Amino acid sequence: MMRLRHPILSWLFVLPAAIGVFAFILLPVVVAFGLSLTNWEIVGSHDFIGLKNYEILFTGDALWNSLFVTLLFTLMSVPLGIALGLLLAIQLNKMFPGSTLFRVIVVIPWVCAPVAIGVVWKWIYQPTYGALNALLGTRIEWLSSHTLALPAVAFVAVWQAVGYNALFYQAGLQKIPPSIYEAAELDGAGSIRRFFAITLPLLNPTTFFVALTQMVASFQVFDTVYSLTGGGPGDSTQVIASLIYNEAFGAGRLGRAGAVAVILFVILAALSFIQQRFFSSRITYDMS
């Protein structure tokens, strides 16, 4: 009887999380895939059309443009955000007057609502009365330029994510035993050598987590882009999440929006698998 009760109790403890995973992850994927096989519109027909939505997307320009813009946004924001987060964490790991307060301040952008941050930065980027142009003493159309709009949005994403990355990197740094650095210093290793030979390799688990979460977030970014540029000018900041929104609520094509969502899910699953394979042989968890 005791053997039967333990598995039941275990499943009861797991049940709330399992319900959450099913309701908010698995079920939406199934629903999106089902929608993608129809021409479902907000007002109108919703007939089964098979893979027609995928054919339209892959033979058109909108999907490829949004994928290209999203990839550029990811390349601009994720590596820089990770590098700056690591450098900030190294500084935060040193005890200095006011360090505790400073740690709280750098995390504030991450916990703020992306739409609120977008509104603030839209004012900062404002060409006539914006704080940035006033500081530079010139007029630059940051959000109206096809060339500058995406880097400007990516910079906001980096600014928002640095504190998040630094928080996890600091936790990783505190787990590295000081004795390892002391032994390396006795062997004549300088600070740069210790950083590349000890710190970076032992932070691989943290780097894997931060890189994975930031990559997923960058491919799903919407609030920041929507509040700053709305996907413009033209389609220069039309990320894939904006395409899903425009197809669903702009054009009223829920079926095609579902197809874009399924494509995004497949891309993220593939990239996550590639990252996992890359870091699997490079991660060290035992630091004893």
TrEMBL record:
Q: Where in the cell is it found?
A: Cell membrane
Q: Which residues form the signal peptide?
A: none
Q: Which UniProt keywords apply?
A: Cell membrane, Membrane, Transmembrane, Transmembrane helix, Transport
| ABC transmembrane type-1 domain: residues covered | 63-275
Asked if the Swiss-Prot or TrEMBL record annotates the protein with the keyword Glycoprotein, the reply is no
Q: What transmembrane ranges does the database entry give?
A: 12-35, 67-89, 101-125, 145-167, 195-217, 254-274
SUPFAM superfamilies per the record? Answer: MetI-like
Do you know which Gene3D superfamilies this protein is assigned to?
A: MetI-like (1.10.3720.10)
Q: How does it sit in the membrane?
A: Multi-pass membrane protein
Pfam families hit by this protein? BPD_transp_1
What family does this chain come from, according to its entry?
Belongs to the binding-protein-dependent transport system permease family.
UniProt name for this protein = Sugar ABC transporter permease
Organism the protein comes from: Dermabacter jinjuensis
UniProt lineage? Bacteria, Bacillati, Actinomycetota, Actinomycetes, Micrococcales
